[in-house]
Amino acid sequence: MENLLADIKKQLEDLNRTSERIESKIDDCQKQINEIKNENANLKAENEQLKSTVAQQNYRIGYLEKEIKRNNLVIQGVTEADDETNIQLKEKMETILRDMGTPITFEAEIQELHRIGIKHANKTRPIFMKMRNYETKVKVMKSTKELKGTQIYITEDFPKHVMEERKVLSKHLKKAREMGHRAFMKYNKLIVNGEEYGVEDIFEESSNEIPEQDATKKGRTISQRSPQSVVSKRTNSMGCLLKN
């Protein structure tokens, strides 16, 4: 009997030691888990900081790009002779601006004037014109209505990504005006009845209709962003931005 009790006691001691080792390993695992959690939290914080830094840098780059192009204009549709010289180009632009009612002293108000791109046969290249000051550019842009009915049109020198966004928005601009809304574009935004929309507000899908169940997955149209019960200038203007 004594031997049996001794064996049982020994087994219990072994079990206790095993239990202690297991508890020690559990504690070590818990410490490692906590360390991983802390590292993960630090990585998340660093990632958020990096996102914020990237967003700030993108904003600064966009701002600088916009400022660099602030005084620039691009003129489309001006005929180009095969042997056109810079002097002839200058004379053409002087005539166009004079006919628009905005005569300009080139030496004083124009910093740079040239065709854009490589010359190709039977293709008219656009003209790049950089003003010496922003006021002159505004004066020219206000007179572009005088070009109505001609093949010539003048636009601002937008960055590539802005031009792509404006191309998307232009279709909705046309539709909004056809529906009688007061609409115009300002840089990369569409203004409808005083409300501002960007490309992120508008679906651009190849099909004309998006099933309701798919709309949840792909995003929301402008009209889905506000409750139907809300009646406001914004919701009234949303309809013109939806696809047929």
CATH class of the largest domain: Alpha Beta
How many structurally independent domains?
Answer: 3
For this structure, the quaternary state is single chain
Number of helices: 7
Percent helix:
40-55%
The rounded Rg comes to 33 Å
Number of strands: 7
Summarize the main sheet. Answer: 4 strands, antiparallel
Protein name: L1 transposable element RRM domain-containing protein
InterPro entries: Transposase_22 (IPR004244)
Region (Disordered): 208-244
Biased composition (Polar residues): 221-238
Would you write up a description of this structure?
With 244 residues, the protein is an alpha+beta fold. The chain folds into 3 domains: 1-68; 70-157, 2-Layer Sandwich (Alpha-Beta Plaits); 158-209. It is 52% helix and 13% strand. It contains 7 helices and 7 strands; from the N terminus they run αβααββαβαβββαα. It has helices at residues 2-68, 86-99, 106-109, 134-142, 160-178, 212-218, 233-238; strands at residues 72-76, 110-115, 127-131, 153-156, 183-186, 189-192, 195-197. The strands form 2 sheets. It has a 4-stranded antiparallel β-sheet. Strands 5-6-7 form a 3-stranded antiparallel β-sheet. β6 (189-192) and β7 form a beta hairpin. The longest helix is centred in the first third of the chain and has 67 residues, at 2-68. The termini are far apart. The model is unreliable at 204-238 (pLDDT under 50). This is L1 transposable element RRM domain-containing protein. Keywords: Coiled coil. Residues 221-238 have a biased composition (Polar residues).
